[in-house]
Amino acid sequence: MRIVGFMVVGAGEGKRYLERSLSQLEKFCDEVLIVANNVDAHTANMFGGCHVRFDDREWGVAQNKIKEDAMVDLGKLKPDWVIAIDADEVFDDTMTRAEFERLAGLGGAAWYFHVIDLWDSETTHRKELAFWNIRFWRYMPELGLGFENKNLHCGLAPRYAYHKGNYAPHILRHYGLMKAADRARKVARYDKYDPKAVFKSKGYYDTLRSQAPPDLYDEIVLLNEVAAEVATYKIKQINEKVMHKPQKYHYIRREDGSVIDIPDRHLAMTLKQHPTWTLIDNVDVTRSDEQLPTARGAEAPVVEADVEERGEDEDTEETQEDEPVKPAAPVEASDEEVACEKCDYIGKNKRAVSMHTSRVHKV
Question: CATH number for the 3-230 domain, one of 3.30.70, 3.90.550, 3.10.450, 1.10.8?
Answer without folding.
Answer: 3.90.550
